[in-house]
Amino acid sequence: MPKEIVTLSFGSYASFVSAHYWNLQDEAAGYSGREGWSEYADCVDYDTLFSSSEGRNGAMTYRPRAAWFDLAGSSGGASHRAEAAAAAAAAAAAGGGVAAVPTWTGGVDVHRAAPVARSAFAATLEQHEALDWDTLDEAEAARQQAVLEEAARLLDPAAAAAAARRRTGGAGTSSAAAAGARHWTDFCKVLVSPRMVVSLPGSWSGPSEHSLAAGWGAAAGGLLGGGGGGGLQMVEEGVDVVRLLAEACDSLAGFQILVDDQTGFGGYAAAVLSEVVEDFPGRPRVLFSLRQPGAWAGAADVAGPGLPVSTAQMTARARDELSEALALCRMSELASLYIPLAAPAVQLSSALPYMSSYNPALPFHTSALLAAAVDSAMLPTRLTGRRTPLGESVGVSDLHSLIQLLRPAAAGLAALHLCLPCPSLPADLQQLQRQLDTRIRPPHDSTAVTAAAAAAVAAEAAMHPRGGGNRGTAAAASQPRLVRGESVYGSTAQLTGLEQLASLTPGISGRDDTALRGGGASRAESYCLRGARTDAGPASTASALEALDSLLRRRAHRMCVRHRCATPMPLALPLPFPDLFSPVVSLHGDIMLSCDDGGGGRGSGTKVTDAAAGGAGNGLPGSVSTRAAAGAASASAASAALTAVPVGPGGRAAGQGVASVGVLTRLQATSEFMGWVRGVQARWTRGAGAAAGRAVLDAWDVGRDDATEVSDRLHELVGKFAADDDGNHY
After folding, report:
1. Of 166, 181, 196, which closes a domain?
2. Cα separation of 593 and 572, whole Å?
3. How far apart are CA 151 and CA 145, in angstroms?
4. N or C, where is the chain less crowded by C-beta within 10 Å?
5. How far is CA 645 from CA 296, 584, 606, 669, in A?
6. Residue 666, domain member (yes or no)
7. Same-domain check for residues 176 and 302
8. What would you report as the CA-atom Rg of the chain, rounded to the nearest whole angstrom?
9. Are 279 and 368 contained in the same domain?
10. 3-state secondary structure of 149
11. Among residues 268, 302, 464, 407, which one has the least CA distance to residue 720?
12. Is the domain of 259 the same as that of 324?
């Protein structure tokens, strides 16, 4: 009997992260019905997150065990309320007229805004669901798929602008740049129950705007605490939705919560969760505190050095610093595990070097990155342990056990680190030989797709024999030479150390170094390695775990509890997922390199690419890629200097995205949080003591006694780390 997990999303940016998260779940569940993939996809228990029901026609419908709490208008052109849709239809049928007002005898002018249009992707996806694909011929099916892929590309402003530049030679890109996903419903593929979307009053303006209220206390003290009982009714409605989800579970494992908790949504989420804690005591709650890239840094000057600071800037800075402390104090009490998250604020991070298309200014990009990290970090709680051709998943856990591993070590605070895509794992020749067993050919194996490409070349040559002209000869000559996987040893980037993990928790480097401010000794860690690869293709779970243990042994030898999870199922990327990856990333996540021995010999300039053929799109059936190596590579080639080179059009077909990637994540409880909490405490003291900060707290109805309680709570958190250090528990 599976243990179900309920997912809650509070906030406009959280809605974006949640939409990407559920697209990833939907894509992975779809792989369970694909030929060759089902044995790998079935190692994940999808009933943990999805509920199923049988319709009137006998068909099964799957919906997320999730609730969205966002502002009215955040859903864009999608209506989740039947009464709202009926009212809009009645108004349209009446021709825009209004009912007479008995107390007014003058004229009435009606100003009605045009309804928000649905995204092209959502509309096309709905049309595809109505098609009978069994009756379509191959040409029509390919055309319909191309239309959907083009609509998906329009969701990404960067991709839409690049496509427009290719079509027009650089002209007419302004309209394309304006395209993109504005609402979370523009790209969410899963079926959402209307009862699970709670619309809060407010003026929605975008996923990056804190339009519910400016700061934590604005909602808690004003919107929710105002007279008339409106705020209490909103909280009760939210609690009822959570109860409905939780009581529908046969065996509730706990909650995972995505919150913009340093905005007004944080105050609302705290009011709802305080009731949930009382209704479901003992159920673990993992809370991801979502932050905009570069926001809440707390150290930068608001106007720059030497520049005058306006009153508005001082108030905004005080509001941010006070919100940070209030969110940490209140949410860390309500959550079993509190994980602050923010995507990198720079386009090319040294820790994420293979994501050249990543744009931190686009919520569509940053939310996708965070969703992939949350999905992979929590994957151990959804694994079944079923055996696959590459071995069974290792390190299967449950939500309670995962939290108990991390919570005692760092006062309920944890950091999340990500390696996406994960480079190839180091492997010796014996491991490679085991992986090259011809009886094991995963669908994402390089040698399997090489055979498919070879068949395509042979078919082309058969259609145009040499005696009938030189077309067949030219086609065969234009194809790269096809070789077995042994010949590409040393051709992909290697995971040489765990310092390649990028920190997604602002202020936490992840370094296991006691010389860091506040100490950096790691106390408890949970690693999840999914879809691991070597130069020979997908790695078995035994090989992946052995390689991970080898990297862990290089870290400082301290008393650190470590949980390791390895599963052969990679991160399957759905069609709406933005193409963030560099051209050096192949169809299935290999990071292709050129081998240069520096001597101009046979290995000099050797380039290994993935030449794609077949359908385009993210993970489409029928898409194949071939791996070619110019020149023979051997075990000695692994010691050659490796330089990343763009694969270019030969790596993936034009417009074709990456179908799947390997991912490595780490949840870390570290004493580095002691310095992090001290920073929050210092900013709280500075903000609460300033005139601008005191005015903000007064507007939030936070009295001096309440401010003292926040200071005491922060001091208590710091004391927990100091007590553990003095006791040498870790």
Report:
1. 181
2. 23
3. 10
4. N
5. 36, 6, 11, 37
6. no
7. no
8. 27
9. yes
10. helix
11. 407
12. yes
Same-domain pairing of 219 and 361: yes
State the pLDDT at residue 631.
29
Query: Average pLDDT of 414-428?
Result: 88
Instruction: Name the phi and psi angles at 179, rounded to 5.
Output: -75, 170
Residue keyed to tokens 């993109």: 180
CA–CA dist 646, 608 (Å, integer): 10
Per the structure, the complete domain to which residue 134 belongs is given by: 115-181
Preceding peptide of 421 cis, ω within 30° = yes
Please tell me whether residues 15 and 146 are part of one structural domain: no
Count up the domains in the chain and report the number.
Answer: 3
Q: Domain boundary at 605, 624, 657, which?
A: 657
Residue 495 falls inside a structural domain: no
Nearest to 421 by CA among 358, 484, 327, 507: 358
Query: Which residues are CB-contacts of 530 (< 8 A; sequence separation ≥ 6)?
Result: 376, 379, 566, 567, 568, 569, 570, 571, 662, 663, 664
CB atoms within 10 A of CB 350: 10
Report yes or no: 44 and 383 within 8 Å, Cβ to Cβ.
yes
Give this prediction's pTM: 0.83
Cβ atoms of 261 and 289 closer than 8 Å: yes
Average pLDDT over residues 72-84: 65
Span 518-529, pLDDT tens digits: 456 788 999 999
Listed ranges 141-150, 333-342, 493-502; the one with the highest mean pLDDT:
333-342
- What is the C-alpha to C-alpha distance for residues 486 and 649, in angstroms, rounded to an integer? 24
Question: Do 33 and 148 belong together in one domain?
Answer: no
Q: Are residues 206 and 173 in the same domain?
A: no
Identify how many contiguous H helices and E strands the chain contains and give both numbers. Answer: 20, 21
Render pLDDT for 331-380 as a digit per residue (tens, 0 to 9): 999 999 999 999 988 766 666 888 888 888 899 999 999 999 999 999 99
Provide DSSP, 539-550.
PPHHHHHHHHHH
Cα separations (Å) of 339 from 336, 580, 583? 10, 24, 32
Question: Which residues touch 335 (CB under 8 Å, ≥6 apart)?
Answer: 257, 273, 285, 286, 287, 412
Q: Lowest-pLDDT range, 205-209, 296-300, 565-569?
A: 296-300
Token couple for 191: 């079926």
Tokens 């995507």 sit on residue: 343
Q: Are residues 320 and 461 in the same domain?
A: no
Asked if residue 300 is part of any domain, the answer here is: yes
Residue 383 maps to which CATH number? 3.40.50.1440
What whole-number distance in Å separates Cα of residue 226 and Cα of residue 201? 13
Q: Indicate whether 519 belongs to any domain.
A: no
- Tokens linked to 719: 């004391």
Strand partners, 585: 591
Question: What tokens were used for 79?
Answer: 């209506």
How far are the Cα atoms of 31, 453, 487, 493, 656 from residue 612, in angstroms, in the given order? Answer: 21, 9, 19, 20, 9
C-alpha to C-alpha distance for 330 and 310, rounded to whole angstroms: 30
Residue 307 dihedral angles phi and psi, to the nearest 5°: -100, 145
Contacts of 689 (CB under 8 A, 6+ apart): none
Point out which residues pair with 670 in neighbouring strands. 522
The region of weakest confidence among 97-101, 388-392, 420-424 is: 97-101
Q: pLDDT tens digits, residue range 576-586? A: 999 889 888 88
User: Is residue 386 within 8 Å of 392, Cβ to Cβ?
Assistant: yes
Write out the H or E segment, with its range, that includes residue 178: helix 174-178
DSSP strand pairing (285-291 vs 252-259): parallel
Residues 143 and 123: their CA atoms lie apart, in Å, by 16
pLDDT top residue among 104 and 713? 713
Q: Which of 481, 591, 454, 583 is nearest to 533 (CA)?
A: 591
Q: Extract the tokens encoding 155.
A: 């969701």
3-state secondary structure 15-35: HHHHHHHHHHHHHHHHHCCCC
How many CB atoms neighbour CB 58 within 10 A? 6
